[in-house]
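Supplementary Text 2. Reproducibility record for the structural model of the 140-residue chain.

All settings were left at their defaults, and a single model was retained for analysis rather than an ensemble. We include the record here because the model underlies the residue-level annotations in Supplementary Table 4.
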Amino acid sequence: MVRRSRRGMQFWQEFRDFALKGNIMDLAIAVVIGGAFGRIVNSLVEDLVMPLINPLIPGGDWRTLELGPGVKIGNFLGSVLDFLVIALALFLAIRFILRKGPANPPPAPTRECPYCLEVLPIQASRCRACTSELPPVEVP
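Retained model, structure tokens:
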């Protein structure tokens, strides 16, 4: 019979609570989706973009492009192009999301305390910094 200590059970309970928190699960989902997105971008670059560029490259196949003897640059250029496509796609997605998101509400009206110049809500009747009583203000 296996006996579990109270501390051991508490440790596993804390670990389970940590692992199942929303932000940990969101991060795991983001990593999986990011990996899939990376494969899509890699396919886009290899199968669509680079075949259009290959006729412009001497020798044809861009993955075997060399600057000199033993200096292969083709894979590096492919990775740079992958990165640029991913960065552009993320930029466009975030830009779209931010534009479609709710507009920032206008700032609440404020006034200054005439004694200490603390910025206060317009409806305040007493200053939170110097505790002076404030004259009433008509709220529009």
